[in-house]
Amino acid sequence: MPRTLRAQHDSFPLSRPFRIARGTKTVADVVTVTIGEGDVVGRGEGVPYPRDGETIDGTLAAIEQVRPLIERGAGRVELLGAMPAGAARNALDCALWDLEARLAGRSVASLIGGAPLRSVPSAMTVVIDTPEAMARDVVSIGRVPVLKVKVDADDPAARIRAVRAAAPRATLIVDPNESWDQPLVEAMQGVLFETGVALLEQPVPAGDDGWLAGFAPAVPICADESVHVAEDLSVVALRYQVVNVKLDKAGGLTAALELARAARARGLGLMTGCMVSSSLSIAPALHVAIMSDFVDLDGPTWLRDDRPGGVGAEDGFIHPAAAGFWGTTGA
Predict the structure, then answer these.
(1) Under CATH, domain 3-106 is a member of which superfamily?
(2) Cα angle value 117/269/154 (rounded, 5°)
(3) Which residues are within 8 A (CB) of 21 and not within 5 positions of it... i.e. 6 or more apart?
(4) 133-187 confidence digits (pLDDT tens)
(5) Residue 71: enclosing H or E segment and its boundaries?
(6) Residue 150 annotated among the catalytic residues of the structure
(7) Structural domain 120-319, CATH architecture
(8) CB atoms within 10 A of CB 122
(9) Which of 25, 148, 246, 249 is catalytic?
(10) What is the pLDDT of residues 186-216, one digit of tens each?
(11) Domain definitions of the chain by residue range
(12) Topology agreement, domain 3-106 and domain 120-319
């Protein structure tokens, strides 16, 4: 049966600014892909990552380049060989998973051979602001099990301490988004230990992390921008204790599962992350999240309006989307 492919740019205004060391976001710009066979349609979403040079136009152009391949019936394995990792391949790969599940009348979980989806505790993000404002943000978020604290190089200790004081029992992940350098990482070890931080995520730029191979951190350090696909692990495993698997970096659920399994085989801890996105990005990522030690999938909670039927968020837990939303059977 002939296939059809459609890709479009969708924008989701945020309910509040999302501030990190790299800048401030007020809109989530995504690329939505639909792949149809007859009256059966699979959907996927990719979020271009400017840090990696990705744009909406570039992502749409990359999808157009493989349109003939997809419309001829190519599957996920062929896609891996036809495109590099990134948002374009992620949107296509996830749409193919969804389409495959719907055509088979099965769930993606059963196709993977993994556990059924369940609710998972997810980090709720506290964006960069003054220490006092960040503490107020924690109070407004409420009592949740995990918080991700965004910081930069401007007095991160005060911000971390303010969040810890406002949330004495929460698991804390600190994320400088590559804004620190080696001296600051070394200087912050005592603060991270003192405040009971569970994980430090990508503190230094990916190109300047070689020194971590000989560093004994007070708390585990997680690779984010330093790791995209399983092939990166030969170097990453020497420098980091945990890896952050993001479908947009890996280029889809297929490659993300490969990365997650390879990381586990090397004894590394696992985190599942996301961009600021709609639930169409999060539904596939939940299949990696149920394998992970840390989960950071609060992207849709920043949207003014999410896609109907998407994932739920309550008390710091992300709940699977409604039946039939993505990768599941049902109405």
Answers:
(1) Enolase-like, N-terminal domain (3.30.390.10)
(2) 105
(3) 128, 150, 151, 152, 153, 176, 177, 178, 179
(4) 999 999 999 999 999 999 999 999 999 999 999 999 999 999 999 999 999 999 9
(5) helix 67-71
(6) yes
(7) Alpha-Beta Barrel (3.20)
(8) 29
(9) 246
(10) 999 999 999 999 999 999 999 999 999 999 9
(11) 3-106, 120-319
(12) no
